[in-house]
From TrEMBL:
InterPro entries: Cas1 (IPR050646), CRISPR-assoc_Cas1 (IPR002729), CRISPR-assoc_Cas1_C (IPR042206), CRISPR-assoc_Cas1_N (IPR042211), CRISPR-assoc_Cas1_NMENI (IPR019855)
Keyword set includes Cell membrane: no
Entry cofactors: Mg(2+); Mn(2+)
Family statement drawn from the similarity comment of this UniProt entry: Belongs to the CRISPR-associated endonuclease Cas1 family.
Source organism, top-level taxon: Bacteria
Enzyme class, first EC level, given as a word: hydrolase
Subunit structure: Homodimer, forms a heterotetramer with a Cas2 homodimer.
Native organism: Pontiella desulfatans
EC number(s) on file: 3.1.-.-
Protein name: CRISPR-associated endonuclease Cas1
């Protein structure tokens, strides 16, 4: 079942009762409820929101992620369960014992499919650079030692948003849209990793002692073009430059988790697809499988059925 993303932007108290999340507006208003079992994500976007420890406990037990937004209304932190899988300790041990050749091969697969998906994204938008990206995808080496990912990124961004665009976290628009979409995607990946028994801090390529979600940063790479497509749709449809994210923009970006992705020859919602990807990654780390089940973006939109 596709889990719900619940977004709160007004002052309220959130609590738990009889299997339900209770939303009580401040200072007054209609109390609303959402079944805990239906929730995959809770996004908190108001500094006056309070929530009970019991609610946090129940959301955690249901493997739901809680995303916290800062004063600029951008996702800035998240909570995911420590133990979302019964084989967590066994899988953690396998992660810690990963060999360098295995990490390099897994990263090679990740970069290849990311660049292929970027090429499909450009082809969908009838942009240039498609063949150049495909050549880069075909020449990725183990560990991407030649940085085909970086070379492909320069071609991709200039063809998607124009020659003057630079992908920078604090850069000009539509970087702020991309930041928001990627933060939501990162939280979704972290949630799926925990559900598959994997520890998000132990990456296959990304590594930083201050990064608690290095593996999420690895796994989300092939999914980024799906976020880019949602952002592109918002950006290209705007009548004037988007300087600040509106409530409507955020709601559109949150729909990213429900977009269809092609994975294992079947169309699935992105949130469901992530669970297949992270489960396959756990099998690769355990030596039970050779390739990660990543999504394959089609050059033609809304293609159903088998790949």
């Amino acid at each position: 079942m596709l889990k719900r993303t619940v977004y709160f932007e007004s002052a309220a108290h959130l609590s738990f009762k009889n299997g339900q999340l209770l939303y009580t507006p401040k200072p007054e208003g209609e109390v609303r409820t959402v079944p805990i079992e239906d929730i995959g994500f809770v996004v908190l976007d108001n500094h006056s929101i309070t929530l009970s420890l019991r609610l946090i406990e129940e959301l955690t037990a249901n493997n739901a992620a809680i995303v916290f937004c800062d004063k600029l209304h951008h996702p800035t932190a998240m909570s995911v369960p420590f133990d979302g899988n019964t084989t967590h300790a066994e899988t953690l041990a396998a992660q810690l014992e990963m060999s360098e050749p295995l990490k390099k091969q897994l990263w090679k697969q990740t970069v290849e499919i990311k660049i292929k998906n970027q090429a499909a994204m450009l082809e969908r938008k009838k942009s240039g650079g498609v063949e150049a990206l495909r050549r880069h995808a075909a020449s990725v080496k183990s560990g991407d030692t030649d940085n085909r990912e970086g070379a492909a990124a320069r071609i991709y961004w200039q063809n998607l948003f124009g020659e003057d665009f630079r992908r920078e976290r604090f850069g000009g628009a539509p970087n702020h849209l991309l930041n928001y979409a990627y933060a939501i995607l990162r939280a979704a990946v972290a949630r799926s990793l925990v559900g598959s028994g994997l520890y998000p801090a132990i990456g296959i390529h990304h590594h930083n002692k201050y990064n608690a979600f290095a593996l999420a940063d690895d796994v989300m790479e092939p999914y980024r073009p799906y976020a880019d497509e949602v952002v592109y749709g918002i950006w290209s449809a705007a009548d004037e430059p988007i300087e600040e994210l509106s409530r409507e923009h955020k709601q559109q970006l949150l729909k990213l988790l429900a977009v269809d992705v092609h994975l294992t020859n079947t169309l699935r919602p992105l949130m469901v697809g992530l669970s297949y990807t992270t489960a396959s990654l756990a099998r690769c780390i355990a030596g039970e499988q050779k390739k990660v089940d990543y999504p394959v973006m089609k050059a033609v939109e809304n293609v159903g059925g088998a790949a």
